[in-house]
Design goal:
Layout lengths: L9 H8 L5 E8 L4 E8 L3 H21 L1
Antiparallel strand pairs: 1-2
Helix pairs in contact: 1-2
């Protein structure tokens, strides 16, 4: 279980509060003319993975709406 009490990210807080993953990492890689970003999470049970995937999609959608 992630223990994030003072996380600045609503994604990290939501994963921690919902007990959706054992580990969570965001990554960003820049190339010459493009880049890639993503979220890497480790969960123990398939149900948790499905719940986490839905939660991550909602958070990315909210991020797109706010920018």
């Amino acid at each position: 279980m992630l223990l994030i009490e003072t996380a600045r990210s609503s994604l990290a807080r939501g994963v921690s509060n919902g007990n959706l993953a054992e580990s969570l990492m965001a990554f960003n890689t820049n190339y010459r003319d493009t880049g890639i970003f993503g979220i890497y999470a480790i969960a123990l049970v398939m149900f948790i993975v499905q719940s986490s995937g839905f939660f991550f999609l909602i958070q990315l959608y909210n991020l797109l709406l706010s920018s």
